[in-house]
C-alpha cells in the first residue's frame, strides 16, 4: 500500500484501461514502460493530425513566448483570424469560442433560446434532440443527450428538452409544438453507435426548421474539422445549419470549442449575454489556426477520402470473410463503425494487448477514428490483427 501507484486520488468516474501513456508522436503513443501503441482513435477524434503535430507544436511554442491569456474585454487579433477562417470554410457568419464540446453545445442551446425569445419575441424554448445522441456532460447537454445512463442521479434536469427517434420523420413532426425553438442533431452519431443520418430525413429537418422558424443546430463536435472528409459533415448533406458546434479536433488536443451561427441567429448574443474567461484564449487560437491551416495546406480532406476508401474496402472484406460475425460497416470519412453480432469488449482488449487502440460505440460496435496521417501499412496492420482477434475471441 505504500507505492504511489496503489494510491489514486482521482475520482472514479472513468472505467480506465490500465495503460499509463506519457508520450505521443504521429499515430504512436507510448506508456511509462516504453511500450508503443498505434492509436487508431486519434485520442477520440481529437488528434486528427496525429499526436504532437509539428505545425501545431511550433505555433504553440511561439505563442507560449508571446501571450498566454487575454480577457475577452479586449479585441484579440488571433481570435478574429480563426473566426474569419471558420466563417470562410463553413459559410456561417458569427463565431463564439469556448473550451469544450459540452460548452459549445450549451452555447448553441442558449443562442437558440435567446434568438427565439429576444430576437423573435416569442416564448419558445423547447429543443428537440434524438435517441442515442451525445451532446455533453453539463446539465443542459446531458439532458439533451438521448441516453438514459448519462442522466442517472442528476435530477432535477433542466426543462425544455424532448428526445425522439433518429431518422424518423413522423416522430419528429409530432414533437414540434408552438414551444419548439430548435432541433439539435449529430449527422453521424459518434458515441451512439456510428449511425449516419439519412439524407432525405436531413432535408426534411431543414424544411421543417424553415417552415416553423426553428434553429437547426448541428453538433459537429466529433464530425467537424475534416473528420468526415469535408470540413463539416453538413457540407456533404448539402444543407446549411443555423448553428454548428465544434470542439474535439479543432485544437489538435489543445482545448478549444466553438459555435458558428448564421447572421440572424449570431445577433442574439448581445454584449453581456454569454461569455467565457478562457474561451478564445491566444494559446487555444494558435493551436486552432495552425490545425486548420495545416489541414488546408496539406490537402488532408482528400487524404481522408482516400483513407476512407482503403479502410472501408478492407473492412468490407473482413465482413465477407466473417459474414456471421461482422454484420455492418458504416460511417463517413474516418469516423467508421464495425458492427458485430457479438460483444466487442474482448476483441478490443486483445487489440490493446497487441498494441492497437480502438474504441467501442455501444456493446457490439467497434469505432475507428484513425488520424489523417495514417498510412496504408498501418491500416493493413490493424486489419490483420482484427482477423486474429475475431478468430481468437468472437
Ligand atoms: C465529445 C462530444 C461532445 C462533448 O464534448 P466535450 O469536449 O467532452 O464536452 C459533444 N458532442 C459530441 C457529438 C461529441 O462527440
TrEMBL record:
Gene: argD
Broad enzyme group: transferase
Listed name of the protein: Acetylornithine aminotransferase
Cellular component GO terms, alphabetical: cytoplasm
Catalysed transformations (reactions): N(2)-acetyl-L-ornithine + 2-oxoglutarate = N-acetyl-L-glutamate 5-semialdehyde + L-glutamate
Assembly information from the UniProt record: Homodimer.
UniProt GO BP: L-arginine biosynthetic process
Source organism per UniProt: Brevibacillus fluminis
MF term (GO), any: identical protein binding
